[in-house]
Amino acid sequence: VSGLRLATQVTDAAVVGHLGTQYLGAAAVAQIWMLATSSFLILGFANAVQTLASQAVGAKKPEMSGAWLLIGLIVSLLVSVLVAGVWQFTGVACKLLLGE
User: Fold this and answer.
1) Rounded CA gap, 32 and 25, in Å?
2) Could you tell me the CA-to-CA distances from 9 to 3, 24, 37, 79, 82 in Å, in that order?
3) pLDDT by residue (tens digit) across 49-90?
4) What is the tens place of the pLDDT at every residue in 22-52?
5) At a CB cut-off of 8 Å and minimum separation 6, what does 72 contact?
């Protein structure tokens, strides 16, 4: 999956690069913004849940594994809603910061 994601990003950059350097820079900033606000958060929560659930199973408490999964899903849902809100106002924030 990550190889396909990388191939898509390279293709996007190649296509946008033909439009000009300003568009290519904007696409790069957008990609960084999306990675910073979504992938790192979601991967962080997934790793945390995996660690906590594994410890619960190792401690012979499989019911806690399910509890950690439920807590992880709820927290991930709340963070996803927060990220969606941040993405909604990204254009406004860029206009205010960059003056364009």
Assistant:
1) 11
2) 10, 12, 17, 25, 25
3) 889 999 999 999 989 999 999 998 898 888 888 888 888 988
4) 888 888 888 888 888 777 777 788 888 889 9
5) 45, 46, 48, 49, 52
Q: In whole angstroms, how far apart are CA 100 and each of 91, 93, 95?
A: 10, 11, 5
Q: Locate 73 and state its tokens.
A: 């899903």
Q: 């906590």: which residue's tokens?
A: 52
Q: Tokens standing for 83?
A: 């990220």
Rounded Cα distance between 5 and 73, Å, is 24
